[in-house]
Design brief:
The structure holds 2 protein chains of 2 kinds.
Chain A lengths: L6 E3 L2 E3 L1 H20 L9 H20 L4 H20 L13 H23 L1 H6 L9 H37 L5 H38 L1
Antiparallel strand pairs in A: 1-2
Chain B lengths: L4 H136 L2 H16 L3 H10 L5 E7 L5 H14 L4 E7 L6 E6 L2 E6 H15 L1
Parallel strand pairs in B: 1-2
Antiparallel strand pairs in B: 1-3, 3-4
The chains are: A mainly alpha, B alpha+beta.
Chain lengths: 221, 249
């Protein structure tokens, strides 16, 4: 889908998705810097908003992973914030959501895949972590392995497919029906963008929590 | 739907950088300030609880103190009432004593007033009696009674006590002795002569006789020789009886 502006630095091709991602990162960084520039016990309106977002994310993560929530919070929170903005940025005329690019969603899914194992091994140790693949029966090991890959693939394809189809549908309706006709589709785009960001982040959170707490669940059993 | 490896790798790097930036710039300071605020709120709550506890203790202390004050107040009030009662009884006793004293005084005063009234009534009765006796004697008097009283005077002059006789003699040493004779009826010449002779024997000096008439004497005579008065009349006798009656009472 790299049908826009691209350039190459040696072997590295810089596509529109990467440039948009940099723009999103810059915007997020500026907003984060502005909101945390003058932190005080008595917060300003901007600080209150930022604290509200962080507190809500922290609470949602703590509800799923109460013991190790703070460890995985930066990763999950960054996923949510980035995906919300990345999904919604397609509504701005002339810009495209980076998440309609399979390379971007695949990169995020792969990050989730490695994060699951990283945090699992970090919290439980390699032996304990690998042991959970053999429970409740070693016979299920191949299914566990397959599920690891398929769910990662599903994460990438789900987000990519939804966002691409939304933009495609809006474009097709605009071509067929004309001006103002795609507005309902754009409203659906907003809802779908938020829902998809929430689903991606929540699934990542569940995978991470499952990896972190698998040993605890086994010991409880 | 094409996969670009450069985009894939750069996206992974970008996202890791974004996580690092947000962790340093966003999550960590915000979570710290939230934790600090929570700590501040907890501290404030603890302080408030301590203050509340202190306030409860103070309230309990002051309630106990108030109870003690209430008890002290009741005791003081009871003592005051007792003192009032004692004072009231004392004042009542004093008042009763004063009343009794006043009653006695009134009784004595009444008794005195009754006595005085009785005395006045008796005096009045005596006066009336003397008046009636005087009126009766005045109606029943005459020359005969006058003559008898003259005779009585002459007899009295005859049997004068020695002290009276000496005092009459002493009057005559100096000069002429004035003798004032007052009678209810006019004296006859014979009576005057007998009297002058009798007094002449008693007083050695010349005597200046002055004769007067006074119906108030009822009957009889009164003889004034200087400061010495000799009465032989009914008026003097009646007054004498009345005085004797007063003195006897």
């Amino acid at each position: 889908m790299e049908n826009g502006f691209t350039f190459a630095i040696g072997p590295v091709v810089i596509g529109l998705s990467i440039i948009t991602t940099w723009g999103i990162m810059l915007a997020i960084t500026i907003i984060a810097w502005l909101s945390t520039r003058h932190l005080d016990i008595l917060p300003s309106s901007l600080q209150s908003t930022a604290e509200g977002i962080v507190a809500a994310i922290d609470e949602a993560i703590a509800a799923v992973a109460p013991e190790h929530g703070r460890q995985i919070m930066p990763f999950i929170a960054s996923l949510w914030l980035f995906l919300v903005i990345a999904n919604l940025v397609g509504l701005i005329p002339g810009l495209h959501s980076p998440t309609r690019d399979l390379s971007v969603t695949s990169a995020l899914a792969v990050l989730v895949f490695f994060s699951v194992h990283w945090f699992g091994i970090k919290t439980q140790g390699l032996k304990n972590y690998l042991h959970h693949y053999l429970t409740p029966s070693p016979v299920l090991l191949p299914f566990h392995i397959i599920s690891e890959f398929t769910r990662t693939l599903a994460l990438a394809i789900r987000l990519f497919g939804n966002m691409m189809s939304l933009e495609m549908a809006a474009m097709l309706i605009l071509l067929v029906a004309g001006f103002l006709a795609p507005i309902p589709i754009l409203m659906l785009h907003i809802i779908e963008a938020l829902v998809q960001a929430y689903i991606f982040g929540m699934l990542a959170l569940i995978y991470l929590a499952g990896a972190i707490q698998s040993q605890q669940l086994n010991s409880q059993e | 739907m094409e996969f670009n490896l450069s985009t894939f790798v750069l996206e992974i790097i970008n996202f890791l950088i974004l996580i690092w930036i947000l962790q340093r710039l966003f999550y960590k300071p915000l979570l710290e300030v939230i934790a600090k605020r929570k700590q501040f709120i907890d501290q404030s709550l603890n302080d408030a609880k301590k203050l509340q506890q202190q306030a409860e203790e103070q309230r309990s202390f002051y309630e106990n103190r108030q109870k003690l004050w209430e008890q002290e107040k009741q005791a003081a009030t009871a003592a005051l009432h007792q003192q009032f009662e004692i004072e009231r009884r004392a004042q009542l006793d004093r008042l009763n004593a004063d009343l009794e004293q006043e009653r006695q005084k009134a009784k004595v005063t009444l008794s005195k007033q009754q006595q005085e009234l009785q005395q006045q009534a008796e005096k009045q009765a005596l006066r009336n009696g003397a008046k009636f006796a005087g009126m009766l004697l005045q109606q029943s008097t005459g020359p005969e009674l006058e003559a008898r009283l003259f005779t009585l005077l002459m007899d009295n002059l005859t049997v004068l006590p020695e002290a009276c006789r000496q005092s009459l003699i002493a009057l005559g040493i100096k000069k002429t002795v004035p003798v004032k004779l007052t009678s209810a009826y006019p004296l006859t010449a014979e009576m005057r002569q007998q009297l002058e002779q009798k007094l002449g024997t008693l007083v050695n000096s010349p005597i200046n006789f002055q004769y007067h008439q006074d119906q108030a004497l009822i009957a009889g005579l009164r003889m004034d020789i200087g400061a010495w008065v000799l009465n032989a009349n009914l008026q003097h006798e009646l007054v004498g009886f009345a005085e004797i009656s007063y003195e006897s009472e």
